[in-house]
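[Meeting: bench + compute handoff]

Bench side (C.D.) handed over the final construct sequence. Compute side (W.E.) agreed to return the predicted structure before the next meeting so the bench team could plan truncations. Sequence as handed over:
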Amino acid sequence: MKYLLICKNCSFEFESWFASSKEFDKLKKLKLLNCQICKSQKIEKSLMKPNLANANFKKEKKSNNNKIIKNKLKEYQKFIRKNFEYVGENFAYEARSIHYNKNKSKKNIYGKASKEDVKELKEEGIDTTIIPWIGDKEN
């Protein structure tokens, strides 16, 4: 069954499939459901609305969801800039230096790396995460 889910924390709406209403209830009770935006577990199911909306409504809803996501990314970026050292294009080199030099203090870094660099780092057991970055022109 397809349900419209609503986060009671940030009001984000999203759809998800469940085998049954009982399956949704079971997953919620086990705290396995959370908001894609704010990670809150305050998720409620809602009745699916008939798909009668016009094109403008759909564009407006998509635009609204995009704004929520963009704002969340801006929050992450602010946190990263405040708590991590920017190493620019030297990200792969710096990540390896931190990983292989056990005596060096562990510092948090961020920067730029190609998909190939990230793949190689993961193959070496170096934990990395790719975060979409909104440029200053997009803010």
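W.E. noted at the follow-up: The longest helix spans residues 55-83. C.D. will use this when planning the next construct.
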